UniProtKB/TrEMBL annotation:
It holds the Pfam family DNA_alkylation. This is DNA alkylation repair enzyme family protein. InterPro entries: ARM-type_fold (IPR016024), DNA_alkylation (IPR014825). Coiled coil: none annotated.
Length: 238
């Protein structure tokens, strides 16, 4: 049995009817929605992670490619988590670059917000930060594809954790008024995370841009602020 089929069989064993019914609704798979046609087996992320621990060493990149092409959302997630584990365990810089190149060549399969958010900063964000390759994220930020734009901004989570915030600001501004709510949420979320590390820079950003930000981005960004200050931003009193 191929590794693809082993993992598929294991996921089907872990499936529950409740999750199989709920996840397509939660991830907006209906006609005209952002994940139209995506298929779910019905497995929660912690159970997918357990499979990754069992299979990541056995999986070649050819195996990962086959798994990543699956019609099933959970299969694609397992493939991405295997990539991350290989990247984090590797001490070989050439192998790490190969894993990053593989990720970038397969962004068309990273086609929902959880697949983006659970994969990009631990692999691509870390690689770009450690190798001064932020041009990769800037290029993705200018893509016509929304998921690539989201990969770019969420990948800067690694930069934020390392105390580097300028790229987050640059990429948030680049797509500040993108048409899709999922980008508004991502931009607001990353700005909020930046604010936890550098409140002064965060507040200066908000004071300059909050009146032109989509409401969703603003609400996400200011969620953790003191309530009086939060209301001042919401009501335009700054």
């Amino acid at each position: 049995m191929t590794l693809h089929n082993q993992i598929l069989e294991a996921l089907q064993f872990l499936s529950t009817p409740e999750k199989r019914d709920f996840l397509p609704y939660f991830f907006k798979t209906g006609k005209g929605q952002y994940a139209e046609g995506d298929q779910f087996i019905g497995v929660v992320v912690p159970d997918s992670r357990k499979l990754v621990k069992e299979y990541w060493q056995k999986a070649t990149l050819d195996d990962v490619q086959e798994i990543l092409k699956s019609e099933f959302h959970e299969m694609r997630l397992v493939a991405l988590l295997i990539l991350i584990t290989k990247f984090e365990k590797s001490k070989d810089e050439k192998e790490k670059k190969n894993l990053v190149d593989f990720y970038l060549k397969n962004t068309k399969y990273i086609n929902n917000w959880d697949l983006v958010d659970l994969s990009c900063y631990k692999l691509l964000g870390r690689y770009c930060f450690e190798n001064q390759k932020d041009d990769i994220l800037k290029k993705l930020s200018n893509s016509e594809n929304m998921w690539e734009k989201r990969i770019a901004i969420v990948a800067t989570m690694y930069h934020i954790k390392k105390g580097s915030h300028d790229l987050t600001i640059e990429l948030a501004l680049n797509n500040l008024n993108h048409s899709h709510d999922l980008m508004h949420k991502a931009n607001g979320w990353l700005l909020r995370e930046m604010g936890k590390k550098d409140e002064e820079k965060f507040l200066n950003f908000l004071k300059t841009h909050y009146q032109n930000m989509p409401r969703t981005s603003l609400r996400y960004a200011i969620e953790k602020l003191d309530e009086d200050l939060r209301q001042d931003f919401l009501k335009g009193r700054i």
